[in-house]
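Most newcomers find our protein records easier to grasp once they have seen one. Read left to right, the backbone structure tokens trace the chain's path through space. Once this layout is familiar, the rest of the handout is easier to follow. The record below serves as our worked example for the rest of this section:


***
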Amino acid sequence: MNKELKNLNLLRSFECAARHQSYSKAASELCISQAAVSQQMRQLEALLDSQLFIRKDKKMLLSQKGKTLFQASEQAFHILQKSINAITQEGIAGSLTITSTQAFIALWLMPKLHKFSALYPEIEIRVTTSPGFEDLKQQHIDLAVRFGTTVEKNTPPGYSCEYFGEDPVYPVCSAQLAKKLNFNQPADLLQTWLVSLENPGLYNWPSWFENCGMSSYQEHQRWTKVHSTDMALNAVSNGHGFTLAARYLCIEQLKSGTLVKPINIAHPEVVKRYLVFDANSAKIARLNIFIKWLKAEMAANDHQ
């Protein structure tokens, strides 16, 4: 064996540092200190007599030789991991860690989770909430259910990003409020409170009003800002004005009549849905079962 290949640990640390373009993020994933990663990279560069990284601000960019080594090492470790998973792949029984937005977990998944557990009692589901795009590998997350237009761009290298449908976004309010006030056209919404997320992204009130050809919303004074859609829907369900919500999040309230959409004009942007996961995971058998169930439940919503 060539001397350069005798210490595969150096190549493993290199692949991690190159993937993150950061010694500190690599250290976090590898559970060692940043100084240890830096020392290992100096050892590898000395062993190869080549500069592999170029520091630029807070990032560690790859040199041309570094890019060549990264491409090869990434492929090599992927092949090794795939082979190991094939040997050690877990069966159906065991745990899965799922993450998504607070609204999806609270309003969609948790009310339905008992149905999955009744079908597959041998699969233990652990649920976490997060609005961002965390490091799934570092957090030991098996599946992220994500929404929006930037999911594919933010998917970690080596992970699958599977599109599985989209939902319209509508202004909704309580049935009681709709009976109390007449809402026949977009301007009528300015009679009451408008509930918005602190960071609404694409799905904001200005875009909805402008799509309706209105600018008078700019003079509106009654706004309520919240951190998540489940908080917004809780407020409007109790009569506190209107909020914008994706159909899948309020389908049950719309069916029961608790919530209504008196102005049946959708937001110009739809919410795209994605599943992000490691297709080579050792838990892929049980992960596929959960994904199949989730898709079936969501498809049932789509046809309601």
Q: What stands out?
A: The mean pLDDT is 89. The first helix runs from residue 8 to 20.
